[in-house]
Amino acid sequence: MKSLFQDASQADELYRLIIDHSLDAFIAIDRDSRILEWSDHAEEIFGWTRQEAVGRPLTQTIIPERFRASHDAGLKRYLDGGASRILNRRVEMPARCKDGSEIPVELTVTSMETPNRVIFFASLRDISQRKGLEEELHRQATITMSVLNSMAGAVVVADLSERLIMVNPAAQQLFGIDGTELSQGKSLDAITLYRPDQISIYTYQERPIPRALRGEHVDGLLAFIPGGSDAAGVWVSANARPLLDSQGALVGGVAVFHDITELRRRAVDTARQSRLLQEQASLLDLARDAILARTTEDVITYWNQSAEKLYQYCRDEAIGQVSHVLLRTRFPIPLDEIRAIVQREHYWEGQVIHVAKDGREIIVFSQWALEFHADQPSRYLETNADITQQVEVERALKQSQQDFRLLVEASTDHAIMMIDIEGRILSWNSGASHIFGYPVQEAIGQHMECLFTKEDRTVGEPMRELEEARVRGRSDANRWHRRKDGNRFWATGAVTPLRSTDGLVRGYVKILRDQTTQRLAEEQTHFLANHDALTGLPNRVYFSNQLHQALALSQRNGMPLALLLLDLDRFKYVNDTFGHHTGDLLLKEVALRIRSSIRESDFIARLGGDEFVIIQTDVSQPDASETLARKLVLELARPYELDGQQVISGTSIGLCVFPKDGKNSVELLKRADLALYRAKNFGRHNFQLYTSDLFSEQTWKKDREAALRGALKNHQFELYYQPLVDLSSWKIATVEALLRWNATELETVLPGEFLEIAEQSGLIVEIGEWALREACHQVRRWQARGLSDLRLSVNCSARQFNDPKFVAMIPFILEDEGMMPSSLELEVPEAMLAKHPEIKEQLSNLRALGIRLTIDNFGTGATALIDFKDFGIDALKIDKAFVQHIPHRREDSAITSAIISLAHNLGIRVVAGGVETAEQLAYLKARDCTGAQGFIFSPPVPAHEFEELMLNGSWSRVNRVPGTHEVLASKDLH
Which residues, at least 6 apart from 110, have a Cβ–Cβ distance to it below 8 Å? Predict the structure, then answer.
């Protein structure tokens, strides 16, 4: 057979992978007990690194001091004579960790002898958790003992070593076992069961508990126990089940013995009466149980009135029918085995299921007696007692008990405790110990106040919680709690009362779960949704809400307020000259300077890019807003020291006042923007107040509007295409269509320079229709050429969505071009969604048609997360402002990871735009980002160049790092 590995290095690598990824710690020592090998898992369990451990004697690492002599002696004994008590066996022993603590481990030692040396290999598994679970199981057993002691049935529990570990009082009385003998290791031999003949004894393999220990389920095993409380002996019906731990492993067996002596006696009497059935038919009709007689071929010859009532078949319908066919009987064991028992013992009893005429399933306790005539079997006499309700009640009780036991034993992440009416802790599960830090011995008996914060204790919250639970039946326990070490954690849960049979409250159950991580994540998400990630200032959403509140307060108090719109001077120059990192530092420094220049009552926000806004409250003093604007112009013009470089910037400010310059937030923002535009036109580094003549300065837009109309008419628009790559399959999943305006043969105008005018003039609807139809036509051609899974992504504006004609024409365009709705993906900028919430209805209608929706430029903080509850989306597209600095900038990396995690939790795709380097791509891929788009794959290119990309696979060369001029070019193309 050919070797798996052709050289030693491959075998060594496999060896290292095996020992380092094993669930157990792996250690190898030589004949002097010096460590030769030390796996990664050994480092995790014991604390010594491989460098610290290798070469040291085992007795100086994991062997506790009290066992060192015996270890050395055992090693010497093996080396001298080959004798060992632990070799090739699993042994439990304590092991020492680097910090001096000891943990229980399960040890397996094997040896390998060569002509030159002896090597011992040890596999060690940390069994601390298993030991803890065993202790918890023991504690829970004592808790439930009172329930078992009150049961009328005899309950016996044995472990895997066939040792009786629990015998309730009913079982002790039934089998004559002294409860004090259990601690001495009483075995199963103490229980003797006789067969129904009352002479022979059930063999060991036939008994209920040994069968349960083999994994069998035993139901209704009939046995006789001589003596006992009844001098004539006791008849029992035994049920047995294997006991499994939370992982489903067998840990023991339990058997329940029901005293059926009375039932047995009644059965004997019934059998005796059955032999006289023909002569005493009138008396049999008075019996409560269904009684029938049948031939040895199971044909019914007698059917009493109780059988008619139970099965709904009258006597004429039943007689002459085969009983098991008529009643559709389901037997616990094969019918042939039952016949054999009846032939041998002349009697059989057990539970069977019958089906009545109306379709009801009935569980009956069935007893068969075989009647003989002239020493030959003549007929069966059968008695059936309806025990359906009894069985269902028993099943429900068993299920309830099992559910309760599993709940208490398996809940490690829920704190479950019982509290008396005074508030003292009565029981305490392992989950409570894990969450609060109090061991069970220390917690029980304490007042529950120790679990509450000082503030809650001061106002009497612990007892109020119990009182609310008593009165209302429940009290929600969602609040901060206190651990033993004093640390606080957020927990959610409830307190419910425990009532006795007379309705009085006898205590309470408090269940809670540590939700600190989720709480902090929600708070962080809420902060990210309302604040700018770079500067920490409120974002556009927060500003919009604050402006509405400020306007309402100003109107109510009669105090005017001012709105100052700031735009940084030379910011693009700083980015292009010093890099985006310096540009970000500049934005942070500007935010700090603005904060230090305004009053606490004023409000500042970053709207995006290099644009800031200030709400100056109470400007009743003359020139108050101008004074602040002048101060900001001077303050922001001072040089900045950024990364050891002096940077000069400045600001232009547009200013308007409420209510003089505008009556609502929309008017104020528009007029502050007009004032800002004038400040820029006046050479920047100044501020301008809004005046009514500013509208006349916008006439240039009319000329540009005419040029746009001409471009649409003269076919000057062109679509460029940029691929979006699926990072799991490394295939182009989507192509984004981007608009370009070929104003002249030498000038291509990017959308940022004309889309605003197109939207304001309404031309955006006509341009958008042309772009969508052209893009669908092109993508459909590519699909027909074999790219059947290729999707088209198109950006749309709020003006387009507000036009009913545009929304209505989308399905018709898709139909005209032969394109499926699922092949179209509409990208909606996050900022647009925040500014124009009215478009959500149109978005929902389009998505209902199968068209996909993506939130573009996500992460700018413009959209509240609650918006995602209003309508469904398919993907989030991370703003490239965050992508461009990963993985080197911690803040951007954290936000990017949070957005990816958010998308996964929402069950939607997440893609990243503006990916330029292999490092950025590797970071996104490692965090399961669904897709990526950017210069690393390809900039936006004309349709024919995009086809070449698909043919030669240029997009797949993801490891190239573009030069400086290439990076700048890619940014312009977006």
Answer: 87, 88, 120, 121
pLDDT mean over 178-183? 70
Helix/strand/coil (H, E, C) string of 896-935? HHHHHHHHHHHCCEEEECCCCCHHHHHHHHHCCCCEECCC
Output the six-digit token pair for 17. Answer: 């992978």
Distance CA 201, CA 698 (A): 109
31, 79 in Cβ contact below 8 A?
Answer: yes
Cα dihedral angle (546, 550, 552, 556), rounded to 10 degrees? 160
As a whole number of angstroms, the distance between CA 275 and CA 277 comes to 6
From CA 740, how far away is CA 762, in angstroms rounded?
18
Q: Report whether the peptide linkage leading into residue 887 is cis, meaning its omega lies within 30 degrees of zero.
A: yes
Helix, strand and coil content of the chain, in percent to the nearest 5, comes to 45, 25, 30
pLDDT (0 to 100) of residue 700: 42
- What pLDDT is stored for residue 453 in this prediction? 92
The predicted model gives 411-435 an average pLDDT of 88
C-alpha R_g of the chain: 42
DSSP code string of 97-111 = -TTS-EEEEEEEEEE
Contacts of 651 (CB under 8 A, 6+ apart): 566, 567, 568, 569, 590, 632, 633, 636, 637, 685
- Strand ordering across the sheet containing 603-608: 603-608, 611-616, 561-568, 651-658, 687-689
Measured CA distances, 877 to 736, 768, 838, 869, 910 (Å): 12, 21, 21, 18, 6
Token pair for 8: 């030693």
In Å, what is the CA distance from 109 to each residue of 34, 106, 200? 15, 10, 48
Tokens read off for 951: 């043919």
- Contact status, residue 277 vs residue 306, Cβ threshold 8 Å: no
Q: Has residue 352 got a pLDDT over 50?
A: yes
- For 850-893, the three-class secondary structure string (H helix, E strand, C coil) is CCEEEEEEECCCCCCHHHHHCCCCCEEEECHHHHCCCCCCHHHH
Q: CA torsion 573→574→580→584, rounded to 10°?
A: -130
Question: How far is Cα 31 from Cα 519, in angstroms, rounded to an integer?
Answer: 55
Helices first, then strands: H and E counts in the chain: 36, 37
Q: Are 141 and 158 in contact (CB under 8 A)?
A: no
At residue 83, the pLDDT reads 60
Structure tokens at 427: 């029981």
- Per-residue tokens: 838: 């009215």
Q: What is the pLDDT of residues 838-871, one digit of tens each?
A: 778 888 888 888 999 998 888 765 565 666 666 6
Residues in the chain: 974
| Number of neighbouring beta carbons within 10 Å of residue 128 | 12
Among the listed residues 38, 114, 131, 121, the one whose alpha carbon sits nearest the alpha carbon of residue 86: 121
For the chain, give the mean pLDDT: 83
DSSP-derived letter for residue 165 is E
Q: Which residue in this structure is represented by tokens 């596999």?
A: 123
CA–CA gap between residue 640 and residue 590 (Å, rounded)? 9
Whether a cis peptide bond, with omega within 30° of 0, leads into 332 is no
The mean pLDDT of 959-972, rounded to a whole number, is: 36
What are the φ/ψ torsions at residue 500 (nearest 5 degrees)? -80, 180
Q: What is the DSSP letter of 796?
A: -
Mean pLDDT for the stretch of residues 635-659: 91
Average pLDDT over residues 763-787: 88
- Do residues 185 and 194 lie in contact, with contact meaning Cβ atoms separated by under 8 Å? no
Q: What is the pLDDT of residues 123-136, one digit of tens each?
A: 888 888 888 777 77
Answer yes or no: is pLDDT of 325 > 50. yes
Helix (H, G, I), strand (E, B) or coil at 199: coil
